[in-house]
What we know:
The chain is of the alpha/beta class. Helices cover 38% and strands 19% of the residues. The chain is built from 24 helices and 20 strands. The strands form four sheets. A seven-stranded parallel beta sheet has the order 10-11-9-12-13-8-14, with helices on both faces. Strand 3 and strand 4 form a beta hairpin. Helix 18 runs antiparallel to helix 20 (598-609). The two termini are 25 Å apart. The model is unreliable at 471-481, 612-620 and 666-671 (pLDDT under 50). It binds adenosine-5'-diphosphate (ADP) and magnesium ion.
Amino acid sequence: MDLTTPIQKVPNIGFFYSKKLKKLGIATVEDLVSHYPFRYENFGAPYKIEGINPGSLASAVGQILQIRNIRTRYGKNLTLATVNDGTSSIEVVWFNQPFLTKSIKQGSRVGLAGKVGLFSNHKTFINPEYEILYTKTLTNTTHTQGLVPIYPETSGVSSKWLRTKIKFILPTIIPKIAESMPAESLRRNKLVPKKQAVWQIHFPKSAAQIQPARKRLAFEEILITQLKALRRKEIWQGRLKGTKLNIQQEKVISIISNLPFYLTSSQNKVLKEILADLSRERPMNRLLQGDVGSGKTVVAAIAAYVAFLNGYQSCLMAPTEILAMQHFNTMKGILSPLGVGVSLRTSSIKRREAFDILIGTHALITKTVQFKNLALVVIDEQHRFGVTQRAELRVKGLTPHVLTMTATPIPRSLALTFYGDLELSTLDELPKNRKKVKTFVVPPKKRNGTYQFIRKNILAGKQAYIVCPLIEPSETLASAKAAKEEYEYLRKEIFPDLSLGLLHGRLKSKEKEETLTSFRDNRLNILVSTPVVEVGIDIPNAVIMMIEAAERFGLASLHQLRGRVGRGDEQSFCFLFTESGSKNGVARLTAMEKHHLGLELAELDLKIRGPGQIYGTAQSGVPNFKIASISDLPLIKSAREEADLIFKSLSLNKMKPLRLLLEKQSLVTPD
Ligand code: ADP
Ligand code: MG
């Protein structure tokens, strides 16, 4: 058995468990030993039974005097046992585990740990952790003494199960773990060797051993992420050639001065950065970060215009068809008068046609399109920041300039770490005409008042969004107002005299387009929608955003939704309805009343809900670390510096274990 051994080959795991382990991202022995505990239960040293007091947590070691199953009058299965350690006896009760009597027999020596209470006046362990001890030296326990690791679990795979397997394989595997970091790096950063860290993270002898183990493993995780980014950057920019574009200043100035507004100084600044990239041969790889409504699209349009002037094609990838259609209209508005051929590709429009700029979803463009001479790719509102798309383009033999746009507020230091291969441009101001969106958490009794307010605004020519969390009712989210039902209800009962539209992800793209066009042309007064409006829809005449069951959203998502209004110079409003009576839930929402910057709200959410919720999984683009915390900025900083040192010294080639980690492809999740 070594690190690469598939998990089903490990004794006592087999195919049955390997399927369950896949859900935890575990496919190999290495994955299993890097399945780290997220906390520890501290049972301490075993007590003498005579000294154990009811009402406390305790650990004990002793011999089973008797054990039996009974069924109570109410049909509950109890296993009752008496354990003696030479000082005294204690009772034990387990609920619903009648199989225990198969392995725990009279005379067995056991370790027990858990809550002790009083049962008919006897000291009793209530449903304790237990283990059978096969040796006379009673100290070698795994589950019932000292610090006991608690792991992320999945159905059928408990912490106890994981603990047993990990303890079983560690003695064989630890000697085979290669030290991935050079001795100087360890010394410079005061890190413990890897072998020691892996042992200590699973089975620390004392609390003082946990932190150094954690630090070491987290450091390595960040180091690898950073080295990967540096390598992607080197490949993308060092070896590949993009298209050097000529910037025709007068034409650029002319398109800018023909816009219906002045660019903000932020927009001017990032445009300069982008155009400078386009004028180089090395392909651009830039992240344009800007809060909702900061005006990213027009910047992209100008960049695409520059490519057009040079006789090259561009494409713009949007995450949804709805957004692709909107971009199509915006681009056409700005660029068609200048003779640019703007074309839209949706699942229903696939015909081959000549174009200068092609707009569609990521999937439609990367899969089906042949380009004549693609020089620029713009990727809008997407979270993996182009890594995947870039790889796909490379497969097609293309190395265009790539501009990725996002409204996800990631602090600069984090962005640089996770996406060290990207240059970063930030739009840090909103167009001057913007007013803060007035935001209110609305108590249920003011619901009718809110409807009246909406009606008043509509009669004055304005429009509103009403957002519900789900398309269809479902039992798990029974209280959520399904958009469809809500739409019917509002249309018949509340606003029978107004025209309402319904928008959700399951509509055909043609229906979506029609609805959205009607709303844009103000033929619909109210758009009832699932959160699909979250990404990027831009209709300045809509000034009210009403959100049902707002507690279901993170603050960053609420901010995105709110960003659909307040896009013109009118005062806009956002009403948050909640079904949650919980104080915390409401307090979180009231943050929306005070804060109007995406970054501030993301940081708040980070404090309230933790990084997993906001930056978790693929949603945000920030990688999901096993052990590193994205809020540990000092650690991130030093790991980044170490990565730079290693990369610059070119010694990576000599560091085989580290190189292997970099190249390792997970069998479970795509990298
Ligand atoms: P986002 O950055 O959220 O993608 P958009 O590009 O959709 O924002 O722009 C939001 C709205 O602001 C659009 O209606 C756009 O026409 C308008 N806009 C963009 N730049 C400016 C500006 N400098 N002044 C005024 N309005 C602008
Ligand atoms: Mg946008």
